[in-house]
Records
---
Amino acid sequence: MKLQKFMLLFGLSTTGAIVGKILLKFSLLTLILSIFAVTSISAQSNSFGVSGRSGTDGRDGRSGLSGKEQIIRASNQAIAYDLSGSDGDDGENALLGENASQCQQPDVRDIEFNLKGARGGDGGNGGNGGNGGNGGNATIYFDELSQLKNILLKNNGGRPSRGGIGRQGGSGCTCQQPAWKISYCTWELRSQLLKNEKQPWQAVQQKTFRCSSNHDFNREEARPKPVRSDENYRYSWNYIGIARQNRYICENGDQGQNGRNGNDGSLGAYGRVWLVQGSTIPTEKISHTEKISTLSAKPIQFVKNNWLDKNGLRQLLSQGSNVPDSYTLLDTKRQSLSVIWATEKSFTDLGDPAMKATITDSGTLDIAIPGTLESTVDNQKDTTVVKIINGIHPNRLQQFQFKGFYLFRDPTKIYLEDRGNLLNELRQVNITVSLYERNSNEIGDNLKKLTYAITPRIQPPSGVAIANNSYTLDFGEAFNPWLKPDTSLAYIISIDQITKAGATYNTGMQVKFVAGKINTNPEVERN
């Protein structure tokens, strides 16, 4: 009865006593095996101390000012110009990163977690050095090249400045005790009947307590307080041993990152120098377009300014000049255009077309003469003369018409008419007739092609007959293999009229028909 009360006191029942004893024996075996085990705890570290502040970055140095631009007129008197860029300013040095503060490591005897020292502050970055200012640009006007020797010119860039010094990072907190252990002890509660002291002590339960010291174990200090006594039993705690030891560490705080040094500035660039012979830069006139009727009444002046890159400036200027060796020289090209009307035909007879002329870098004129005009071009030293000697009106070109089939039913012969009546005023006329398959209104594959080259006042080629402005083309048997009854076909006709100026003007047309069913009004489309 008293034992039952004891078990109820510690959460055991009479029916579970046997099971409890077995569990206690098993727990005791496990405890003995692990008495001397040390567990290394990998826990999240808690920091101590206050992190140092980062050092302030140095300010960038100011860049130098660029030299002013200058127009210089050379003469026979010596003159000096200083267009140099100014120097840049040095970049400012940075400040040191601060050390971590309040770095006293806490007493580890009661700490059951890892420690990490506070970090040092980063060092500041040095400021970048300022760039040197660029030299000023100069435009020099001169009459004679020798006058340039009277000019002392400096347009060099300013000197760069140095970058500021980056500073070191601060130190982190250090650990006075880098590692420690926390021990946990196991005690066993035993009981014995008071009336029978010879009865062996019986194990009741085991408990694990934190040991009183992290280092040397003191059994008396670590003994648990006794439980409340029962009138029939005496109780006693018996020390079993160290159940486990947890190991904890302290890491020093990180050193702050060192700041970088600032970049040095860049040397200022030389200014550019332009040389112009004369007192002004001529106004350009590169292109001109105008009708022949008004263009022939006056000459047209063209001006083209070429800027040429050259070397050797230091030899051209006065000794002591500080300039780039390269320079840009103005080379002006001039040309005149004159148009002479040398034909008995009037401007209206030839359509009064427009003409366009453009001056090139070399000073020659690129002239776009309409292909309907016959002309000659005479390239003289300073003048280009265009003489109009003949031509045709543009509206008379591309006037070919399809007039029909032979006897309105034979597709092996067709009639064409040139309503402009231009054959004798052209260099050549080329007529190409191609036979195509046709599916409804869609043009298919090319079946056969014939070409006729016609030259004025020369016997026409075989198959061509010309009467005034009418052309009869006889294809003979060339297309017969495909001219089967009820076959949908099409002639595609291309006519090139080549003028005496060499220009080509094309007329295209498409004639649809069905073999064996030729009508008097075939379907014709102009391309």
---
Amino acid sequence: MTLQCDRSDRFFRRCGRIGRFFRRTVFAALVSLLAAGLLGAAEQAPPPLEIHTGWQYSWAPAPESGAVSSPDWRTIRDPVNPPGREGRTELWLRVRLPEIPCPDPALLIDRRGVLLAFETWLDDRMIYHFGMTDEAGGWTFPGVTSHLIALPPDFAGSTLKLHVFSDYSNIGLRGRMSIGRAEDLIRDVMRRDADGIVIGLLIIFFGIFDLFIALEQPEKGSRAPFFGIYALCVGLYTINLTTVKDLVFHAPMFWFTVYFIALILMPVGIVGFVWQTFRPERGSLAHRLWQAHIGYALVCLVFYLAALWDWIPRPVAYFPIHLLRFVFILEMVYLLGIVANQAFRRGNVEARIYIAGLAPVAVFGAYDLLVALGPILSDRSFVQWGLFCFVFSLGMIRRRRHLDIRNRLVTYAHELERRSEEKEKLMKDLHDGIGGLATSIFFLAETAKSYSSEAKLKRNLAAISELSTESLGEIRTFMHSLDDQDRNWSALIAELRHHGSNLIEAHGLEYELDAAVDQRAPNLSSPLYLNLFRIHKEALTNIIKHARAGRVRVTLEVEARRLTLCIRDDGIGFKQGGRREGGTSNMAARAAEMGGTLEITSEQGACVRLELPLPQK
């Protein structure tokens, strides 16, 4: 147990150091983000020109040269998913480029890219292609990425055509297309994606930190790192939405695979987190959903790999991920119901933190929806900030749980230490009490063996009988002090009254006990139980031997923070000088051991008064 607590202390100290490093990292990242925003606002360079009007499309096959002589060109507002597809997988898009002077011209198609493979033609010249054709003339899956396409100096006024192939449910230009100087395009991308990159890295750091805690925590396997899984997936998903990642590391299939894995594991993380935090019962619906998502994620991964190796048609592989999105929306509504019930009906603070973190996601998601529908004119998305707020709220919940575990471990360590001290005291009391009586019985029995006189033998046997009875009483009291159910103030009062009546009244004296216990009084520990009983017994024995009293009155007052025990007799007091030799030093030692004081006075008899503080709950 001590080793376990030491490991827990080292673990939480290490977490504290990592937490301090994490706070400094977050602060530095936010300062960097602010600085990037200020620098972006200070830049006076003209923004690149976005091409979002004047698009035409055609489903008819174009000539091999790519000339625009096809008669079936139709105007479209947005160059994605034009009408009349009817299962077609090839689409032609065209637009006339503006006549603007531009040194080092380039064309940028942002992070959402073109779905899926395509060729870029400028008038009759192919200047760029993405995705390869196989031997049969079909297209292989190239992934989804951003594209920075260099333009010739004489691009102005030319016709740009995109020959797009997609067997996905969407086809066409899904991203933004901008034209300008290559350096200005890259600067604009850095400005736009600065917050997404920083937020994505911070969320990834959240996830790695939680996974580290899960690996280092003392109770291996006690808590699965669902928050770490979810945060890591959200961070990778956020970075995957940026264009910077493609300019820094152009690997379309790698980034698409990262996006796919993050997408299928996000439900595993968030469903597991809600189950673990708010519905931890195994067999509950949240637990079953989490188990189902693990299996479903494996199914999606198998379909994805099979499609990459052309074992199954790609449209078949797309179906599980489409279904996952729909099911995940329904599950989020169900999970929100669970959390709302905890927050508003049961007053769960962690559930309220969860809802507060989810609110920005809903607000910024609604904002993006209004931008897409047209009522709001904007080219910015703030959903990454909503995701950051949500992940941060989950991190706060996770931190509260870790602090709760830490506090419980510290309390448990203190309890172990207290129990160890109690054990030592109980063993000492057992040795001094029952051990002493057993030793006396042994010596009396050994002495009786040598007696030839029947009278002496009877005296020894009577003494042995008396000591045996006293030993049984000691054992009974000791067992009561160990039993949590029997060890309470009511049981102690009953034991004192029983023992006092039997001991005092057997010698012809009157015994009276008055007790008052405050309901706020702390629980009664084993050493306190035994020490109070021993002091009471020692005081009564002294009264019988020395006081020449006729009446004994005992009062016990147990308050929230203090205990007072008073044992008073109507005897002769200390006048004959023999009273203080009757075990008062033992009573004083027991009182000092408990942190209290013992006072013996002699006025119209004698009074033994014990006062001691009580440990708080």
---
Amino acid sequence: MRFTDKNFWRYVLCLWPLLFIFFLGQGMMRLNGNAAELGVTATLSLIDTAVFLLCFIAAAWWTYLPLQQALLNSDQPEQHRKLYENILSEFPWRALKSYWVAGWAFAIYLIIIIPTVAVLNDHLFSWPMFVTLILNFSFAAGILAPTLAVTLSIVFATKLRLKLSKFGLFHGVLSDEHNHKHITSSTHRPWLVFLVTGIIPTLILSLYVWLAHDSNEAEAAFILSQAIVLLLMSVTASLVLVWHITQTLKTVTATLETGLHHLTNGQFEGRVPILLDDDFGELARGLNTAMQGLQEREDLKDSLALAAEIQQGLLPKHEPMIPFYNLKGFQETCYAVGGDYYDYIKLEDGRIWLVIADVSGKGYPAALTMANLQAILRGLSIVNWPIEEAANYLNEALCDTLAAGRFVTLFMAKLQPESHSMVWINAGHVPPLLLNTSASGEHHLEALEASSPPLGLIKNMHYEVARSEFMVGDTLLAYTDGVTESSSCAGNDMFGEKRLRAWFKEHADEPVSSLPDTLLHDLNSFGRSDQDDDLTLLCVKREK
């Protein structure tokens, strides 16, 4: 699309109501005989028309000049977004200044020329008639014409904004620097129309009544004729103003309705053009901000879904097959991604690392730390370090990478099926529960308490291992604090370690594969909600 100087003449043509009202006033003065009484000839009328056109076309040229230069110098408006937005935001104010000067220049011209012609031709001309002409010319040329011109300029700018919105302009910027709300505000516009076409003409007509009251018959007839001219011009101008304001508001509300339609249908990529720098513009910008925010939210949901998928890929796909043992893991996050982690890492010698960890915090930061932890552990498993050396290495790495105040609690064990034993380290983690079943069927719980602080807090820590034996029927339940900190329905109580111990004893004889589902069901019945912490379980049971 290319803009040319034809756009200037389109702008001039949209000002046709000015010329119509000018000819209306001029024609009425000829019909009622006022022109003849003042000695205004057809030649003088043509000269008046030429001066009128010269004044207002010059005002239109000066108003349009910045926009004309911008349009002529750019084939691609989207590359000059700020330029167009500033120029069109300034357009009503520039129009007000130029047409006010043009209107009063033409009014002064008429106030000087018409009485001078009447006096030189020895026509009847008294001071009441002179005051009447001053009031009529001042109102029509100095007030009514600039008001119409500014309104029509706003209508033109609105249409141009709608045209330029196809290039992505006027979708998010509402200029504060050029936001002249005394001209464009939707709450001010009705009062301005009422002032120009109602109050001022009424006051002038009241003066005409006062002037005619003390005048002779000829003067009173002249004043009455001028009152009719003023009234007709005022009513016509009010109709033009109301029509154009109504049509502009229909265009603006149609775009807002389209935006609301997009919003209700979830089409958040659409934008509403800001056609007016007023409260309607603020509403359009608010809609655009809402749609942009919702679109970003949708994009974020897609990113979160992808991140959750990636994080799930870091967890074990299935439990390893170990002679005499059954294993089961489970995780549920309160957000799309979380900082809980569990893993089974099978070593070359047939032993297996059992890991459960809880990264401080939630969401993306915790998930990134969890991914880093998983990568380091998988790398260390290849060299088959003793778990205390692996823990020492993890601690040093996390101290160097974690932000201040962040840490990781970790329970890490090496299950040794050939000896039915387990060596383990608890670095600040909630104590896993080892359930022993005696020959008499009694159950005894042992808590594998932490003996060292969490990882990532203190450098140069040396972690020491403990050892536990697995008898037939023994079950290990390792978990994160999302289990014990699950809230009740009333929100004033937590599940707690005491309830967990009682629950574990009650379900000691269940298959290990069903323990996570059973525990989750009981936690939900207790009152657990999505607002509670991440929940992770790791269960190991010796069957034979």
---
Amino acid sequence: MTVSRLHQFSPQRTNPDDLESILVARASLLESTMDKIRSSSTTKNRYHLLFVGQRGIGKTHMVALINRRVELDKKLASKVRIAWLNEDETSSRFLHLLLRIYRSLSARYPDEFPIQDVQSVLGMAADDALAKLSKVLVQRTKNHTILLLIENLDAHFAKFSVEEQRSWRGFMQDHPIFTTVATAQGLFDGVKKHDEPFFGFFDTHHLQPLSVEQTAEMLMKIAVLQDHSALQQMLNTPKGQSRLRVIHFLAGGNPRLYVLLSELIADDTLDDVVDTFEAMVDQQLTSYYQERLRWLAPLQQDIVQVLCRFRSAVSVKQIAEELFTTNQSVSSQLKELKGFGYVAFTKVGRETRYELAEPLMRLVMQVKETGSHQPLSLLVEFLQAWFDREELERKRGSHVRESTSWRYFESAIDTYDQFLKQWPELERLDAPKKKPRTIEELNAIIDSPETSTDKKAEALSDRAWAWYETRDWHKLVSDSTLLIDLDINSDDFRKPLGVWFRQRGWVSLGEFSKAIDDIPVLSSLLGEKHVSKHSLSFFLAALTTLDSASLDVPVGLLLERVVKLGVESELGAALVELLGCEMLQKWADMIKTWNAVWQRLGANIPGLVVPLRLLDTASNYLVTERCECLLKLPLEERKLLMEVLRVPNDSF
């Protein structure tokens, strides 16, 4: 069987059928775009679309599929003429752009757009050449519509003067022969400033990074396409899904990186993948990001470089400390960087944390700071996320010492323990490879006076898992309490796990007040001064295990406690966050009851008005699967709910 080749940096060179087969998250956007192109070909309407997103997000993939679908639709292809411009070329004048458009048409439709038309204007005065070529293009187009596929539109506008932009806009208004599909790395002045010629001209769609679920879908499609059965099997296991969440964090939802990483999974030899990464950095990304940094003010450049060093989102205070400046100075610059598309932010309680909007920028900085023979940490972390220590050691042994592949596995093994401290759930996932300890063995470890506190915590955690799986709720509560009371570090993940176990046991035993009493206990373990959204989320997750007839009592008790503590807004945030839980979204047979209970018992609590409105709307949407349900919400609430439910922006 011939394995399909996916060209990461030139999707237009990939087999179009393969591009179709791995498409995720953008199917509805692609369909709506095709509908607009069809409308442009049969009516006087002319649509102009702009896809905006970071490098590697899939813009060229979309353009390639649009090109393919037009070609395959014989009726549409008879009415449309495609001009797909080379993405690496830009124009500084409208005349130059028009020449490129005509040459593209001539290459594709030589009989309809003879190249002699271009040759006839060469050497003429620019104004005369523009006038003649414009007239010829309109005449040659006849009753067709030209579909202009133009990538990196922001680079064109960076070279176009305002006068050249006016010439382009004026031509398109006077001669409505074009419908446009363009791409850009981000919004730019030429389309977002009110006084610019193209303000309001494009219907703009922002291509978002893939979610964890979309990432899993894409990798599964790649695995099927390339007949990689081992990857298919792994992705269908809890272990594979957990590892995928870590990889999603490392890659930042960037599809290009996932395609590269899928090659790494499929092949034990890393050399080709490393070469591909380095070529991507050297040939495509370095100059781009260096130029983007040069656009920024000095303090903004420093902030971006600080964020490149951090994998997770950081606070204003952390950035200010790194740069020996004030929080106020950093805050004002971060606001501008967000507007420029360099940074993204996340709210954590009252604090805002910032990170790079484009993970590929971090990769560029990483490569430039790494010695020529040193492994790239992104690839090393990927290996650590996907393979356990035993597999890493086995793979290292299969390669020649000091070869590129050997160095990567060696580096992954050397820093494996450090990596697992960041992702302790991966360490637990390795446990099934070892022979499970019996209850008798765990009892002996726990009861022995020679057992260290840490080993006792590990054994109690394992025994609690056993009680949880066998639904022995009394023993689960007992072991969870022992685990919580152990003298281990308060930030040890096993203490919060113990609280969750105990809450789950109390809820299943109908001891709802005791389960609610554990909410502030969990908050304290998480280092929070007050009851927070996170600790409330644990309790809400436990309630989802109850049948509908048992909900009134715990929800009523919880609302009483929440009002007494004054944390209604935190409960509202936890309720909304729970709507994004995949389990809840599959819970259609009970979602109506869950919603009804909350609406009835929480109706008179002012702090829950908006969350309950979102819950009610989400319930209708999850049951009916009709996007129209969302339209009754104000725009800002609708956007929030669509993000939580992962509803595409173009669903309407």
